[in-house]
Inverse folding.
């Protein structure tokens, strides 16, 4: 039996991030996808920025001086937040895969999200006051 290939539409992509079900599992899944995309984007930016090293110390130093403004610091803080959220959510998924914490998935999600937010606030404070 042959299967008919289905084309992915814009509606399919939008539904991928659809938070209307308001369940913890859905929010965890959506946050995991968004943070994964953000971290992947950051990885490409990071590699481009590292290419500044090829321009010598002057090119790199001028770039470092230009990123001291609050917009870049906020972007760095978003990367930190995405790393915490994605990492803790990954730990939750691993625990569930091994059968640990399956009955308390919702509580684990909220606890790990709270830890990630507190850690982000602490690091954000240090970033903005340094």
């Amino acid at each position: 039996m042959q299967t008919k290939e289905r084309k992915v539409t814009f509606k399919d992509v939008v539904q991928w991030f659809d938070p209307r079900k308001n369940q913890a599992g859905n929010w965890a899944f959506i946050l995991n996808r968004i943070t994964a995309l953000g971290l992947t984007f950051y990885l490409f930016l990071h590699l481009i920025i590292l290419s500044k090293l090829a321009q010598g110390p002057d090119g790199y130093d001028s770039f470092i001086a230009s990123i001291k403004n609050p917009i870049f610091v906020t972007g760095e803080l978003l990367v930190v937040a995405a790393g915490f959220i994605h990492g803790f959510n990954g730990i939750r998924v691993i625990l569930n895969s091994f059968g640990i914490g399956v009955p308390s998935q919702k509580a684990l999600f909220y606890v790990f999200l709270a830890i990630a937010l507190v850690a982000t606030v602490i690091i954000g404070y240090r970033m903005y006051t340094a």
Summary: The chain has one domain: 25-129. The mean pLDDT is 86. Residues 70-97 form the longest helix (28 residues). DSSP finds five helices and no strands in the chain.
